[in-house]
Hints:
Blueprint: H1 7-13, H2 27-31, H3 38-65, H4 67-70, H5 88-107, H6 111-129, H7 137-156, H8 163-190, H9 206-229, H10 232-236, H11 246-262, H12 270-276, H13 278-294
Helix pairs in contact: 3-5, 3-6, 3-7, 6-7, 7-8, 8-9, 8-11, 9-11, 11-13
Amino acid sequence: MVKLAVWPALFRLVRPHHWVKNLLLLVPLMTSHRVADLVAVSNELRAIAAMCFIASAVYIVNDVFDLASDRLHRTKRWRPIASGEVSIRAATILAIALTLAGGLLAASLPRVFLVWTGIYVVVASLYSLRLKRLPIVDVLALAFLYTVRVLLGAAAIAVPPSAWLLLFVLALFLSLALLKRYVELDEAERRNADVGPGRGYRVSDRHGIGWFGAVSGALALLVIVFYVDGSEAATYYSAPAVLWGLVPCLGYWLGRAWLVAWRGNMHADPIVYALRDPISYAVVAAMAGLTYLAL
């Protein structure tokens, strides 16, 4: 029987604030203009629930493997397992339960969804065990995992994913992954400390990572430009020229995020920053409005 006092720690262990990432599964539903298709919507909701469970299980496994290094980290030592609030046994049982729940939901969807789910678990596990210690490979792996979410969303409703969309997501989230690494290195430099165990970067890599991240963000904007200027946009939108407005909106958000990071005010996790930032919600609303007008 789990003690009542442990439940808050178990809740933090699954990192529910990261579930917002799984909203990426809805992107193929919107880009294929099937938001009024109740069957497709039902499939996507089951897919999102499956990914929430499975991703949380992967986070728990990651925390178990990183226990030693987390206990030496300035902030990660307060994570439920590292701090001793949750035992490894309890964490393992929870991870198994989440995996089974996610697997059952995934099995109710098209088979290709199950295949991509397996790929996600393998790459995420490799990331926890090895890839996170390899410079540049780690951020490429993170960007790939975000892209897999879009592929999962497409698989759930059996629509072919757009190459433009995949390239855009890969470039955008590569920029955000590099932003996260930049913040870690910048914080280490400000504290006159090293990066910490389990990372392949040096504090001196900070500027290179920053420029690489900015270029990746610019590439995401360039993908939008080529898509709108091409013939494919006219196939799906009656007023594709309206989509040009996405470029300054996203460009402003990315530029502002990097500026906040360069000033040393960025949260350690850019996703958490976006969730707490009213301007981020305004930019998303503006981009959604422009997309609707283009239709």
